[in-house]
Amino acid sequence: MNLEGKVAVITGSAVRIGRAMALTLADAGVDVCIHYHLSQAAAEQTCNEIRERGRNATRVSANLSDPETAAAVIFEAAMTEFGKVDILINNASVFENKSLTDTTEADWDSHLDINLKSPFFLCQRFAKLLPPRQTGQIVNIVDWRAQRAGKEHLAYRISKAGLVTLTECLALELAPAIQVNAIAPGAILPPPGEDLSYLEQRAQKVPLKRAGSPAEICNTLLYLLRSDFVTGEVLTVAGGEQLTGGLG
Ligand SMILES: NC(=O)c1ccc[n+]([C@@H]2O[C@H](COP(=O)([O-])OP(=O)(O)OC[C@H]3O[C@@H](n4cnc5c(N)ncnc54)[C@H](OP(=O)(O)O)[C@@H]3O)[C@@H](O)[C@H]2O)c1
C-alpha cells in the first residue's frame, strides 16, 4: 500500500507504543484518528504533533469494555473527520499478571473485551465501511506469549491467542480487499507501574540480550503496511524471547 494520503485508526494511541505508531504513520503521509480511553491530554498532544508533521489528526475517547458501542463511536469519529478509513490498528490492551487461581471474572471479562472482542467488532465495522473495490489493511498487536503456553498472564495470553486466530481467520475472510496481519512484540516498554529495571531483568533472558524499542515495532508496522503480498502473518519482534518462552 502506498501510504501517502491514507487514513488510519489506531486504538490506544495517545501514549507509548500506540503513540509511536501514530507519529510514524504521520511521517509516512497518513492522517490518524487517535483513539484513547483516559489519556485525554496525551491524545491532544499526539494530535498536535501529527499536525506539526503536516498531517491531519482527530481524537476520540471510547471505553473498549463496551466493544460494539466503542467500535461505532470510533468509526463515527473517523468517518466524520476524514470520510474514509484505510488502515485499522488494534493496539489498545490490558495486561494483568494473574494466574489460574487469582483471575476473577472481572479480570477475565476485561481482558477478553478489550483485547479480543473490541478488535473483532472494530474489524467488522471496518470491513462493512470499506467501499467496494478499495483495499484496506488491519494490523493487530499481539504478543509472543499468544503463541506459547505459560502459567502467568493467563487471561491476557488467552485474549492475545484469540487475536492471533482472529488475524488468520479474517485474512481469509476479507481477502483480497483487506490484508490482515499481526505484530507480536517482546519486551519493549515496562508495563504501566513498572520501571526500567523490569526491562533490564527481562533483557537478561532475551537471546539478543536487550529490550526492544517502539521504533522497532514501528519499522515492522511500515513493512507490513507496504507489503502487498503478505496476509495472515504474525511477525514476532522479540529478540528471540519467543524461542525460550522467557526462560532464558
Ligand atoms: N509494552 C510492551 O513491551 C509490550 C510487549 C508485548 C506486547 N505488547 C502489546 O503492544 C500493544 C501496546 O503496548 P503498550 O505497552 O504501549 O500498551 P499499554 O500502554 O498497556 O495500553 C495501551 C492503551 O490501551 C488503552 N486502554 C486500556 N484499557 C482501555 C479501555 N478499557 N478502553 C479503551 N482503551 C483502553 C489505554 O488508553 P488510555 O491511556 O487512553 O486510557 C492505553 O494507553 C498492546 O497491545 C500490548 O499488549 C506490548
Map the helices and strands:
Layout: E1 7-10, H1 16-27, E2 31-36, H2 40-52, E3 57-61, H3 67-82, E4 87-90, H4 105-129, E5 136-141, H5 154-174, E6 178-185, H6 196-204, H7 214-226, E7 234-237, H8 241-244
Helix pairs in contact: 1-2, 1-7, 3-4, 4-5
The protein binds NADP nicotinamide-adenine-dinucleotide phosphate.
NADP nicotinamide-adenine-dinucleotide phosphate binds next to α1.
Name a few traits of the molecule.
Rossmann fold; seven-stranded parallel beta sheet; alpha/beta; 248 residues
CATH homologous superfamily label: NAD(P)-binding Rossmann-like Domain
Bound molecules: NADP nicotinamide-adenine-dinucleotide phosphate
State the share of residues found in helices, binned by percent. 40-55%
- Note the run of SSEs as H and E: EHEHEHEHEHEHHEH
EC number: 1.1.1.100
Family: Belongs to the short-chain dehydrogenases/reductases (SDR) family.
Organism: Gimesia maris
Pfam families: adh_short_C2
Describe the structure.
The chain is α/β, with parallel strands linked by helices and 248 residues long. It has one domain (7-244): Rossmann fold. Helices cover 46% and strands 15% of the residues. The protein has a 7-stranded parallel β-sheet, sandwiched between helices. Helix 4 links the parallel strand 4 and strand 5 (136-141). Helix 3 runs parallel beside helix 4 (105-129). The N and C termini lie far apart (38 Å). The mean pLDDT is 97. Bound molecules: NADP nicotinamide-adenine-dinucleotide phosphate. NADP nicotinamide-adenine-dinucleotide phosphate (NAP) binds at residues 12, 14-18, 36-39, 63-65, 91-95, 114, 141, 143, 185, 187-189, 192. Belongs to the short-chain dehydrogenases/reductases (SDR) family. It is an enzyme of class 1 (oxidoreductase). One of its GO terms (molecular function) is 3-oxoacyl-[acyl-carrier-protein] reductase (NADPH) activity. Its EC number is 1.1.1.100. Pfam families: adh_short_C2.
